[in-house]
Amino acid sequence: MPRPINFCSGPAALPVPVLERMQTELADFAGSGISVMEHSHRDARIVSLFEETESLLKSLLGIGSEYRALFLPGGATLQFAQLPMNLLRAGACGAYLTTGAWSEKAIKECQRYGDAVEVASSKASSYTEIPPRSDWRIPDSACYFHLCTNETIHGVEWFGSLADIEIPVVADMSSHLLSRQMPMQEFSLVYAGAQKNLGTAGVTIVLIRDDLAIEPQASTPSLLNYTNQMANDSMVNTPPVFPVWVLKLVLEWVRDSGGVSAMESRNQRKAEMLYAAIDQSSLYQNPVATSARSWMNVPFVLHDANRDAAFVSQAEAHGLLNLKGHRSVGGMRASIYNAISEDDVQILIDFMREFERTSA
After folding, report:
1. Closest to 108 (Cα-Cα) out of 88, 80, 127
2. In sequence order, what are the beta bridge partners of 228?
3. How far apart are CA 156 and CA 288, in angstroms?
4. What domain count does the chain have?
5. Exposure check for the chain: N or C terminus, fewer CB within 10 A?
6. How is 215-275 classified by DSSP, letter by letter?
7. Are residues 323 and 208 in the same domain?
8. Do 244 and 267 lie in a common domain?
């Protein structure tokens, strides 16, 4: 039987070569005779693993010593709180652009720790677009600006420049980091849960530029203090060693596959293929404004919602998994991360066309 194709938004598909390396190397890490999961995080092999992973990640992103990379527990959701704990100063506010479910959660969590101001929102359009830059109202009291550059649930992605914003820019890039080349120098802090496009659940990447002012609130636990984590190389307590190892294997696969530029070319082609198939169909529709369509998460609805269950059932029978849309929006969603090939997308398109033909 052919291997099923996993279109889940996260935990998502992993590259098959990475899975095969995991299978081969799991019981014997770096010639030690024991698994990576059995080593102390103080072991020189694990320390090297973290150092090499940070170096490789920064190399792929085109950034250098001006950034530190942390590998933290708690998922990107914990960063919704950890961020204001470390950056939100008394008398200042966090400025938030609301473009979907995840940025909604981020601003609500920030409000637990201080003042959070919504600079613009696309909620009125059901998050099918990104508010135009001319509508953003960033308060003078803002000490950072936050946005989610790719919303997995609603399928919108930010493609513009933020170079004109004069305060530190913070981005949740959980679902598209390394999917295309990004202007990383425009960001003072970037965070990303690994389980969408970078590996498996359990580790969150936090990239911090060295000129970012970090002033943790007095009540911030030591484990959640960015400065403390940097001083201890992400090892304030026992870190998520296994997910960091998987992350490193994925980064090596990206490097060996041509780097981020190759990922970008392939991802653009995949997205164009799938959106074209949807736009040319009389059964399927994508609700997102063309200029904001995500390359990674493609939601679509069937004109007749009564066919949804049959679509999902038949897709699974054809080995096309996890196409059901998020419960908050319904419909369908295909997450076509780096690990999904152009052939995989073509197989999905062929199925969609056959389903439309036979159910007409």
Report:
1. 80
2. none
3. 7
4. 2
5. N
6. ---TT--GGG-HHHHHHTTT-SS---HHHHHHHHHHHHHHHHTTHHHHHHHHHHHHHHHHH
7. no
8. no
- Token pair 């080349």: residue: 181
266: its two tokens: 């392939």
**DSSP letter, residue 67:** E
In the residue annotation, 196 being an active-site residue is answered as yes
| Residue 188 φ then ψ, to 5° | -90, -30
Sign of CA dihedral 76, 78, 80, 83: negative
Q: How many CB atoms lie within 10 A of CB 117?
A: 17
pLDDT at res. 110: 97
pLDDT in tens, 45-72: 999 999 999 999 999 999 999 999 999 9
Q: Identify the CATH number of the domain in which residue 228 sits.
A: 3.40.640.10
What type of residue is 43? D
Q: How far apart (Å, rounded) are the C-alpha atoms in residues 274 and 75?
A: 29
Q: Is residue 346 part of a domain?
A: yes
List of the chain residues with pLDDT < 50: none
Per annotation, catalytic residue among 58, 115, 172, 324? 172
Q: How far apart are the first and last CA of the chain?
A: 29
Predicted local confidence at residue 1, as pLDDT: 61
Residue 198, CA distances (Å) to 98, 147, 203, 247, 338 in order: 24, 20, 10, 6, 8
| Per annotation, catalytic residue among 102, 158, 245, 295 | 102
- Model pTM greater than 0.90? yes
Total residues found in the chain within this entry = 360
3-state SS assignment for residue 191: strand
User: What is the amino acid identity at position 248?
Assistant: K
Instruction: Return the pLDDT at 155.
Output: 97
Residue 58 among the catalytic residues: no
- Expressed as residue numbers, the domain containing 343 is 258-358
Helix boundaries (H) for 88-214: 101-110
Rounded-to-integer distance, Cα 20 and Cα 14, Å: 10
